[in-house]
Predict the 3D structure of the following.
Amino acid sequence: MARHWADFQYEIYLNGLTGAVPRLPTDLTRLEALAEQRLGPGPVGYVAGGAGDGSTARANRAALRRRRIVPRMLRDVHERDLSVEVLGRTLPAPVALAPVGVLSIMHPEAEPAVARGAAAQGVPYVLSSASSTPMEQVAEAMGDAERWFQLYWPKDREVARSFLGRAGAAGYSVLVVTLDTPLLAWRPRDLDQAYLPFLHGVGTANYFSDPAFRAGLAKPPQEDMNAAVAHFVGMFADPSKTWPDLAFLRENWAGPIVLKGILHPDDARAAADAGMDGVIVSNHGGRQVAGAVAAADALPRVAEAVGDRTAVLFDSGVRTGDDVFKALALGARAVLVGRPYVYGLGLDGQAGVEHVIRCLLAEFDLTLALAGHASPATVRAADLVEDPA
């Protein structure tokens, strides 16, 4: 039976009869400012910041705001089913939690709190390679819930092979390979604080717990942290990778593979030609290339190029339920949401993560219905117009 996500609003109103109000805002665009007030400048800057002057992050929001929904009337939307088929699995709604690293800087319960929250709401969680918690512990926190693993593709082939083997053994079903971070971008908010958690051995749990990584160390990480961090920095990313290298991933991963960071139709075609199962149209939330194209502006061209051959997903700039609707109308099959759940985690732990998921999907459910749709499957480009302003 389909879940009625919109009922969350009635739960809130009924709780109000006893004087209770939500602990966090239900307008998820307000979470960033609240996090800025309550949390440290280093951690918040790391999550909120972007490349350069932040123009790409702003462009992501502007591109979604520029599209306006055209509601349709007198359509039967009494019973709605938000479920979608993506990458061979049925999701209860077209939303997953995007990979965000180093979550211990936001809350001591870090990734396991997100994992439990995602599992409780039935939403897939994409765990970052750069997590503060080893992937096996996060998997344990999720039980049998849907979980995907994001790979920052390291220079060391044996470490890459080991990560893929561990993730498969721990029940991660989809591999998400981030392509847009072969180098760390110029990020002034982090630079101004000289804040990079990895140099303190934070966000390195998957590496420091990995046998192939540890084989390259003279001493265990806890006995020589500086040497372990240097080893990590030396292999974290590889700017020399090219399309033929994808064969290595296919040889070492049995499930679906999705490439994250695709913005050009030709790159999407190359991914499909290489047998990849999906692409994520993303500019890393504006964190990698200042002045880059907004992800929502790139989405229609990518969807047109490969949408009939491979799954097209979307992230970068999603904050609200209407953003989810707009991304589907622009050609995405599902979206990944990042910063909002991280702010929810920082402000209220697992409960904050669940609050964000429930608000986002309640608003999406209501937007879908009020726009005249009972299912994400019927949302089309014709449901949007571009605001001339």
Remarks:
- The first strand starts at residue 67 and ends at 69.
- The chain is about 40% helix and 10% strand.
- The radius of gyration is 20 Å.
- The longest helix spans residues 339-370.
